[in-house]
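Suppose a colleague, Dr. K., hands you the sequence of a protein chain of 197 amino acids and asks what its three-dimensional shape might be. Before reaching for any lab equipment, you can write down a predicted structure in token form. Begin with the sequence itself:
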Amino acid sequence: MQNAIIDPNQGEVSPTTTEGVAPAIIRRCREDERATILAIIQAAAEAYRGVIPDDCWHEPYMTLRELDGEIAAGVEFRGYEMDGALVGVMGVQAVRDVDLIRHAYVLPGQQGRGIGGELITHLRRKSARRMLVGTWSAADWAIRFYQRHGFEPVPTAQAPKLLRAYWNISERQIEASVVLADVRPIPAGTPTRFLRC
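The predicted structure, expressed as tokens, is then:
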């Protein structure tokens, strides 16, 4: 299948063939895609049901009003588009001296194909600042994902301080969350499959 690789050193697009990966692009999500972003978040967040504390789970997991609030607060979503449809989203939010990874979700039927990895690599490459991500401490699969992609848990005693300083979340969510920090630079020239940002 045909993909495109942007070499960050050359700035050129060169076609390549990668077995088992559909042609795809990573791009900024549009205003008119809010319902699609929300549908991806709702579908993927089902993985948290019965895993995170019951008093932290709510239905729906995120409302349109909450999504609009996140966007108004500066969360910029990038989407992974495959065959003309968004199948994954990941937000980034500049807060003071760091960039936060926010709301990283891939449709359940598309998980395990490297889409989340492509998105986070793209965001890491675009950021020149320290990056942090917060997630539920019971979501061991999410923690492993971030560790595979260059993030490491911060010391337990430091996490609540960071969550209070950089996120706008409840004390209960702070108690049930961990923070991971970006610790590995992405080597220049590391290719990823995307066409535009």
